[in-house]
Amino acid sequence: MDRRAFGAAVLSGGASLAALSQPAPMPCGRPKGGLGEQDLRDYIAAFNRSDFDGFSKYYAADVKFEGRAGTFNSRDQVVAFYREVKSRMVETVTIKDLIVGENDMVANIVTNLLALRDWAEFPTGPLKKGQIIISENFAWYEMKNAKFVHIRSAGYRRS
Amino acid sequence: MNNMTGRRFFATRLFTAGCAAVTATAAAPSMAADPAAGSCTPKPAMSRERFLAYIDAFNKDDYTSFGDYYAEDVLLVIAGKRELRGRQAIFDFYKEVKSQTQRTIQVNKFIGTANRIAAELESEFLALEDLPNFTAGPMKKGGRIFINTFVIYDLVNGKFKQIRSAEFRKIDRQLTAPVKA
Fold this sequence. Notes:
The structure holds 2 protein chains of 2 kinds.
Chain A: H1 3-12, H2 17-21, H3 37-48, H4 52-56, E1 59-67, E2 70-72, H5 75-88, E3 89-100, E4 104-115, E5 132-144, E6 147-158
Parallel strand pairs in A: 1-6
Antiparallel strand pairs in A: 1-2, 3-4, 4-5, 5-6
Chain B: H1 4-16, H2 48-59, H3 63-67, E1 70-78, E2 82-85, H4 87-100, E3 101-112, E4 116-127, E5 144-156, E6 159-173
């Protein structure tokens, strides 16, 4: 419940003036950017099950996405890229660490790629069918109005 | 962001950004209300100001001051490969880097939580001599490399226990003309 909703609930509940004169207990609200830890976990879960509507709803229409495999400047571009990726491989992301701020969050994520077929032109290097690539990346998410507006990924390690 | 105007902008963004951030991580302690802040976010393990003081000490080669931020058994992992354990190992590494380059770090972004912080750092390396085997790549005297890294710091008792750094971007601005000695 956000602060406005909380205040509305108090008022609609007919609270006494005396009660209103006391500082209301502050609920644990969402970060200013509108997304919290559970949102990121839900986003990743949707991504892992290839729920394109489910994960892309977290993107602003003009999201800037700077991933290891390319840079994109809109939600549509990101989704198109991942439709291609997921038609050629199984990509599973696991969150190891998560640091949530008011307008930013940083996740240490492990990405597991399993190539379903050869992909010579894969942006980070040619892939052979059956090949598995595991990488650990630090992803920095900037958020506004409960959407990701900028996502950047930094490579930490790869095996 | 690759010019001084841009760099100043980045620094300004840091100082003018809203109140730092601080919600729970997977291993977060219980949430305690902070009436002063008007929220129930936990107190960060390190404030933005204290972290900036650390970077300032680093930039000034003040080893005593910035070394005080490290736990005795601190572990620094650079790009998931190079591991340096203990203050002295870190000092030795930086002393070598700083003997070859003038390194200046600025903080572009900062998030503080109860037991961990994250920062985006932009490091400028100015080569003081030709460095064909420099750790960040070959450099010519007078050349500059700018590296943006995302760094995660795990803290125990207010000190850095583990530091992990991942490279986001490297911009190489080597000189094409020779530098006069």
